[in-house]
């Protein structure tokens, strides 16, 4: 095959990866930025979203798009509820102490994973795409659904950006992120902002998972890779910087496909993880972040 | 209470525990002796972790790499080069110490959350490396060290490490050596320095202590202890696999130390033993032991952040080291 179509295909696949990754990482970044909590269970919220998408979409008979639409609505809500519950029951009682919350979210990771294994099983199960359209590109036809995923991710990210920068709720979040004590002193319900942000972060991961299940099957261990990749994206983009997160997701999503073509996937992961660790060691504010005040 | 009196009491307690464990070799039924052998080696791993997490206040999420460095550092020469057991035990410890030095120099540039993520990522790289060099390590499937490879014969004496009693006694020797070393260490001026760094790093720096050097020493010592446990584990139980380098083996020592009591010398043993028997007991009626690990972690951090012995020390026995 000539270089042109090959490159276009790799780019498109890379964009799909980047879109889902950006949504997932955005959730992680938001939680870290506002609450200073490293949510190790973030990948499990992603997995939970995928598993719920399967459960909801199989519950609906008829055209797959009905089930999918229902999943897109139900899965994030349920995951958000679960996140809210764990925030109220566990994280708040720990006063959001960074080290204690890491230990607690590791605990959540094991609990969610085991529950998924017990109730959902060890099989990978597919979810039907809501529609099946091929869009004819210059050299080949491409799945319309994958293009829809890219578009949906862009819309969701724009919505998140709009909420954060143009609404009262977003203002409260940014004030809390900037200085939670002063925010508290000015009467901002910091406690409720934290709860909302934690739920929102989990919901973003769940939406990303619902979008990806028609392409990738739902499996109880599927949260591992998104967690690691999200960490990488958030670190490269700068912990807590949303713009950096999106740029880094694009960078990683696009290069991931290309590196995997030339090297073995294990070596690619090895190099990527090692390099990111070095970024954190020598440039802790990330490539796009600003040094802490 | 005089310092001398408390000193005698502390040493008596630790030597007493070791004596009890020695007696256990002759009393315990076969199955439980096997469990105890494993627990003793893994408790050594937990003690190494405790030096860094409990005493120095550095939460690492990558200690599996030091354990696995010992495991592979000892296992690979035995398997591929036919080296003797004592020699490869040495290379295992050396591998762990060297790795700890390199990782320490890099990771200690970061603090807090970044330190946890960096150690986790380096450990992940180590894990992926063991998978990548499948030709030598056989990846997840691992290497099985045969009985013949695990025999020491000083002066014609044939000591097989697969003999249960020998295995138990060697595990106990390693455990006791590290336990007594830890006790000496944490009661020494250097141990006090580490605790002081944990409590207030800035003040220590202003008082003129070389904080970086102290922390690096702690990382290297911790790496050496963990690697000795890894090397012993591979040689005693005859299996070397990359599962031991996975993230789970970085979380487990954290769990054991939290359960037993961070910054207590005997906590790691108590925590490891307790967790082993909880899992052993519950696996009788459920396979969902990960759920238990998760619930245990959350309950511990919520209600017993000081762990079993930490709580005992706080409430009753203030002199417990």
TrEMBL record, chain A:
Example GO molecular function: transmembrane transporter activity
Localization per Swiss-Prot or TrEMBL: Cell membrane
Primary localization: membrane
Membrane topology of the entry: Multi-pass membrane protein
GO terms under biological process: amino acid transport
One GO cellular component term noted in the UniProt record for this chain: plasma membrane
Listed PANTHER family: ABC TRANSPORTER PERMEASE PROTEIN, BRANCHED-CHAIN AMINO ACID TRANSPORT SYSTEM PERMEASE PROTEIN LIVH
Family: Belongs to the binding-protein-dependent transport system permease family. LivHM subfamily.
Official protein name in the record: Branched-chain amino acid ABC transporter permease
Species for this entry: Neoaquamicrobium microcysteis
TrEMBL record, chain B:
Alphabetical keyword list: Cell membrane, Membrane, Transmembrane, Transmembrane helix
Keyword Transmembrane helix: yes
Transmembrane segments: 12-28, 40-67, 87-106, 113-133, 168-186, 254-279, 285-305
Signal peptide range in chain numbering: none
Cell location: Cell membrane
GO cellular component, one term: plasma membrane
InterPro entries: ABC_transp_permease, LivM-like
GO molecular function, one term: branched-chain amino acid transmembrane transporter activity
Source taxon at top rank: Bacteria
Membrane topology: Multi-pass membrane protein
Record's protein name: Branched-chain amino acid ABC transporter permease
Annotated source species: Neoaquamicrobium microcysteis
């Amino acid at each position: 095959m000539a270089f042109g179509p090959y490159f276009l295909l790799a780019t498109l696949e890379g964009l799909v990866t980047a879109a889902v990754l950006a949504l997932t990482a955005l959730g992680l970044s938001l939680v870290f930025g506002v609450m200073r909590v490293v949510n190790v269970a973030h990948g499990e919220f992603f997995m939970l979203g995928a598993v719920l998408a399967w459960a909801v979409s199989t519950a609906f008979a008829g055209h797959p798009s009905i089930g999918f639409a229902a999943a897109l609505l139900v899965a994030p809500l349920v995951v958000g509820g679960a996140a809210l519950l764990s925030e109220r029951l566990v994280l708040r009682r720990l006063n959001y102490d960074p080290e204690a919350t890491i230990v607690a979210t590791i605990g959540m990771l094991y609990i969610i994973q085991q529950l998924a294994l017990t109730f959902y099983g060890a099989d990978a199960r597919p979810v039907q795409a809501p529609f099946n359209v091929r869009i004819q590109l210059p050299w080949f036809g491409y799945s319309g659904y994958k293009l829809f995923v890219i578009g949906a991710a862009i819309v969701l990210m724009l919505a998140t950006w709009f909420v954060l920068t143009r609404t009262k709720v977003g203002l409260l979040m940014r004030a809390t992120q900037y200085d939670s004590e002063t925010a508290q002193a000015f009467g901002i319900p910091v406690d409720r902002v934290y709860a909302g942000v934690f739920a929102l972060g989990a919901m973003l991961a769940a939406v990303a998972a619902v979008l990806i299940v028609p392409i990738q099957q739902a499996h109880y261990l599927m949260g591992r890779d998104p967690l690691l990749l999200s960490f990488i994206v958030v670190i490269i983009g700068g912990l807590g910087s949303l713009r950096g997160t999106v740029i880094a997701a694009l960078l990683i999503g696009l290069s991931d496909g290309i590196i995997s073509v030339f090297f073995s996937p294990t070596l690619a992961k090895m190099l990527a993880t090692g390099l990111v660790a070095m970024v954190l060691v020598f440039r802790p504010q990330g490539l796009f972040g600003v040094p802490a005040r | 209470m005089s310092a001398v009196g408390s000193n005698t009491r502390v040493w008596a307690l630790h030597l007493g525990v070791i004596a009890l464990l020695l007696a256990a070799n002759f009393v315990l039924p076969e199955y439980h002796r096997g469990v105890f052998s494993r627990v003793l080696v893994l408790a050594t791993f937990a003690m190494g972790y405790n030096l860094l997490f409990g005493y120095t206040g550095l939460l690492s999420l990558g200690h599996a790499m030091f354990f696995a460095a010992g495991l592979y550092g000892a296992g690979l020469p035995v398997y591929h080069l036919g080296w003797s057991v004592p020699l490869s035990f040495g290379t295992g410890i050396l591998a762990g110490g060297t790795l700890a030095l390199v990782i320490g120099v890099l990771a200690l540039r970061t603090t807090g959350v970044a330190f946890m993520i960096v150690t986790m990522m380096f450990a992940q790289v180590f894990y992926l490396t063991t998978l990548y060099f499948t030709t030598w390590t056989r990846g997840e499937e691992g290497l099985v060290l045969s009985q013949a490879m695990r025999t020491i014969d000083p002066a014609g004496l044939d000591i097989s490490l697969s003999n249960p009693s020998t295995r138990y006694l060697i595990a106990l020797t390693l455990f006791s050596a590290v336990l007594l070393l830890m006790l000496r260490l944490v009661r020494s001026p250097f141990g006090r320095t580490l605790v002081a760094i944990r409590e207030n790093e800035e003040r220590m720096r202003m008082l003129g202590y070389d904080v970086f050097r102290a922390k690096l020493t702690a990382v290297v010592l911790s790496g050496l202890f963990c690697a000795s446990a890894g090397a012993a584990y591979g040689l005693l139980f005859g299996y070397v696999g990359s599962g031991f380098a996975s993230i789970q083996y970085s979380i487990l020592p954290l769990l054991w130390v939290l359960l037993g009591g961070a910054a207590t010398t005997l906590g790691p043993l108590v925590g490891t033993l307790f967790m082993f028997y909880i899992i052993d007991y519950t696996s009788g009626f459920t396979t969902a032991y990960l759920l238990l690990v998760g619930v245990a972690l959350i309950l511990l951090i919520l209600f017993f952040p000081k762990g079993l012995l930490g709580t005992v020390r706080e409430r009753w026995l203030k002199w417990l080291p």
